[in-house]
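User: These chains co-purify. Model them together.
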Amino acid sequence: MAKIIIDNQELECREGMPVLRAALEAGWDIPHYCYHPGLSVAASCRLCLMEMKMPHPKTREMDWAPKLFPACQTPVRDGLEVRFNSDVVKTAQESCMEFFLLNHPLDCPVCDQAGECCLQDYSYKFGRAESRMVDPKVVNPKKDIGPHTLLYTDRCVTCTRCVRFTREIAGTGELCLVQRGSKNEIDVFPGRPLDNPMQGNVVDICPVGCLLDKDFLFKRRVWELTGTSSICPGCATGCSIRVDHADNRVYRLKPRYNPKVNDWWMCDEGRFGFKYTQDNARIIKPMLRRGREETSPSWREIPDIVRFRFQDHVRASSADKVVAVLSPFMATEEAWLLIRFIREVAPEAALAMGPVPVEGEPQAFPCAPPGAPSMPDVKFTILEEKCPNRRGIEQLLEVSGGTVLTFEAFSEQAAKGDFTAAWIVGGYPKPWVEKDTAKLGSKFGLLVVQDLFENKLTEAAAIVLPACAWVERDGSFVNAKGLAQPFERAISPPDGAMRDGQYLFEIAGFEGLYSGQRVRELMAEATASLTEVYEAPPIPAHAH
Amino acid sequence: MIPDEDIIQLEAPQLSSPERLYLPQIVDGMRVTLAHLGKSLFKETMTVQYPEEKRDLRVENYRGVHRLNRDEKDRVACVACFMCATACPVHCIHIEGGESPWEDREKYPVKFDLDELRCIYCGMCEEACPVDAIELTHTYDLVGRSREEMILGKEELLAIYDATKAEKPRKNPRITGYPGTGNPSAAGPSLAGGNPS
Amino acid sequence: MKNVGVDGSTTLKVYESRGGYVAARKALAMDTNAVVEEVKKANLRGRGGAGFPAGVKWGFLPKDRTTTLLCVNADESEPPTFCNRVLMEHDPHQLIEGTIIAAYATRSQVAYIYMRGEFHEQFHVLQKAIDEAYEAGYLGKKVLGTDYALECYIHRGAGAYVCGEETGLIESLEGKRGQPRIKPPFPAIEGLFRRPTVVNNVETLSCLPHIMERGADWFTGIGPPHSAGPKLFCVSGPVNKPGCYEAAMDITVRELIERDDMGGGMLSGRKVKAVFPGGLSMGVLTVDELDMKMDFEDPRNYSLLGLGTAAAVVVDDATDIRLVLRNVARFYGTESCGQCTQCREGTSWMQRIAQRIESGAGRMEDLDLLLETARNMGMMPGLSICGLSDGATYPIETIVKKFRPELEAAIRSQPAGQVEAVLQAAN
Amino acid sequence: MSWKAIDRNQAVVDADAPPLLSEGVREKILSYTHRYETKRAALLPALHLVQNTLGHVSWQAMVEIAALLDIQPSDVFDTLTFYTHFWTHPKGEKVITVCRSLSCEVLGGAAVLDALKARLGIEEHGTSSDGQYSLVTEECLAGCDHAPCMLINEKLHKNVKLDDLERILADGDNDRVDMPRSDLFDAPPVAESKQPASATEDDSRTTDD
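Assistant: Joint model of the four components:
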């Protein structure tokens, strides 16, 4: 640890990190564009300049150097004294902001970035009121640089964050800077569009409205959105994300800084993977089947019905003929409630986990450039396991004891008719019921299916309970590295549906409102090892 | 919090004993009342025969039904910036933006709905508009048979513009310094919050 | 410059016959540190513009390095400088000899000569000379029969002023855009291909054979103590004998223009109006300031940035100062690499203002605006990564300050309404 | 401004097109790479070579150079556009570069440029209709002692007078310099076999002294 002094205030921070980052994390709002902690230092925007004390060349006394230093490029070392609050620094910031805005089209009303734009914020905080340029502005074109992204070159501040991202993190290097001087533009090689699995991040790191997401374009103004902390369920990596929603609808997902998992990034698959939550085909009402008769009971009746049916069944046949199939899309807390209920009504009940969806191979980033002698250090991984909580469910099954089956074993036994009552949880965003699984529907005397979409199993089930998408629930997921991370509820379930956690809470015999935190406390009483969750430390909003 | 130095303590004036009789005031009040009575009986009528007769509006700052202006090429002037919707205190404006079909413009409203029943005619929307696309006209006789009918869409709002093109509703109504200030008798019928303060 | 003008000066035969490669032999017989010390003692200050002592620069190299690279800066792009061109055109072997000495002193085994792309003739001359040197054993596996090996390549630039900045040059050599790098790390620690690198100017290296041959004392004996050694001065513009002349650094600008063995006075009928004594970037002198000494220190007394490349361009009294202003502003507007905001936006803004003033639509406040923009670009060192921004500041600032009455008169004589009309048409 | 987006998804290079760079050019480019520690460093020499052989660096040439040097085409695009000497579109047979530095402008460089424009009937960056000449300007050609000067391909024309222009343009050899050239460098690419004596090994050397 090193002690440095910023604006007369002492601060302790790690030696070697940039002064800018130390200051930002300690709460100083220092304007900066080109610096991003996840990328190499360019020091080209010259906005984070500061004054620094240096030994005088003649007297060797420490005094303010007659030179400005970029804070992003100056490493912290013990005893360093810098200041941002001097007039020189303020004038430099002011003039720099004027330069930035010289050629800016000032089209904030139609710019999607407005509201989260660093040009707006900085010109308000650090800039001068008006531009003194009367000459015509340099006008650059808008470019369609890829299937997901638009590039508005005349809003660009040439911070080159995006270029460095594609070179250093994605490793694909599609973006480049062309031309020279005030004419320079970000561009791609024609016919080689920005289309890598991580390209969405360039929109996030763009401090201005230059790179915009086609998917979100014109949909909403950002100040209407509410952000909720969540975890991406797209793969077992479990990236920390923020769900931006308004009017009970998710509009976009953004990565959230998490040093243990995803740093500042997320992949496109996760970013655009929320669309299924808005599918109209979702099951939104609980359903009860008696023979051919279908009814839709109210949620108030559900706990009693389910409990009664299971108890009835156990009485009629035997407890070891009951099975619960948990889904790797369930939150740990929800799965725990279900296990608790099943084991309560049928202590010898078997437990299994549903199929784990696997697609392709794990993809590591940065991609190795052609002809590179060695693989670069991996900075991000997209896993082939496309579910968020396999580890969590496995841990639960482990601590629950009793009969635990693999899905294959369950299928085999169920096909033979070993089970008479089953609770099967789906919740997969993609169709998951294979031919063999579909046949199992008729093998149970009592089948409860909890799923997002209709399928062969829900058709055969005696009780169908709507599952909710993860943005409508809360709980925690355990990622591939075994890290349990909580996620919050962003929006309400569609009309008619109820959060899985809530009905499982009630079915399991609890009263009141479900919350991940509350169930974790209950779990802690039962098994202490399951309750530690890791939440990424929040970073100040100005440390973009 | 109001700073202490900005607070002025006022004493209520003490009334003398003749004043406490209130007779002169009563007489003064009656005089005004009777004068009006006389005026309406013999000289002019205050009642307006609505709807045959339209009221004389103080158009400088009357805020009636909204309109969506067209630009010089007869296209909707709105750029779908959502500023009016953001400024609206009662959330009566619903906009859906989209990429404009024109080359010189980026964004335009695919949908622009305004709930005239929910609206409180505060005029914030026209204050907020960066391109002067939404304005409040002097039209006050908006009627409809259902609530749905009172939600005006983009085409309807543009149609109001076409009908009221001739008049230029004033943006930023001049509240102070209108003819009535300090001389109530000179003021025309005061409708739209013509508070001179 | 002893071989300039000699017939066949570019060939090895002539060069050797006039005492060539003696210094290299002498240097290679010495210890590398002794060579560095000798150069330090000679106080050889870099001839490229900044005037940083070459020996000290070599001293920054890490002691435990395994590889060092030498870059020869032949990207002479500062208008109106051409002394390197003259050196390479007429005396390529002197440069090669200097390169050998510098490479030996810095223990470099590869030397890259970064030559600007506009030099075609000079490229062929130098490449031919290098071939000759290879054949004669001055370059290659065994330099002069010793165990020392040195490869020398020419790397051609392609029209970018900023590649004359040492880190810009390094980036360009690596096949990237020639944007100067952030410092630290300095090239001596981590330069080309992340190796310790020395970048020296052609003229600096061309001094080395003489220093080695005649000793440091001879070198320091020429000129004032802080600006030792002979220097090449370029004169151009409407003078009788534009060209490149060698002199000690106590010469004044007036002498440079008027001495018969140098500029030879102004063309008949023309008078000096202004002089840029050290390349554009250093700033301008008025006709009253011609007694400035062309050394490393005196220019600062005339609110100039420094000596620069010591290439004087004379502007005569028939030239409109607005043309000069626009020419200078355009140069930086075109040549800024666009990395740092101040420089990218500032130079192009100044260019636009200057163009408008020249077109007859200047406003009085434009002059203050130019001054303020210039100040905002170079108010304090450190505002931008390299010196181009400072270099753009000084000429503009000195032109506006020193020729303000003329500019104001020009603006005042514009027809009324001109400014508004031009602005309206432009926007 | 126009809100029509430039479509960068469309390929400009026909993937099935035959290679543009001849085997000799390729070999020569690869031979440059031995001079440097990274392959990318050979980019500028490669671009010079390609421009000299093809007249300009086309999109396809960029892709092929990128493949040779193990970099992305965008990297080539990036570097190429930074330098004013490379062009991505065909130019005339001879490119006239007029110097516009202060010395040249004080001595009538602008008049020369204007005369050339009028004579060739083109603007700056234009190419004459017969494809013979293209006209560009350059900030300084470092020929200030011969101002005003201009460059036609390789040849620097010094002290250009307006009256001389016709004569210069009429001269068929106005773009060539007649001088002995390096066999190593100027040898035609195909015959390229000999490299500066040691170029293949020296870069692997890491020890010193």
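The two ends of chain D are 62 Å apart (CA to CA).
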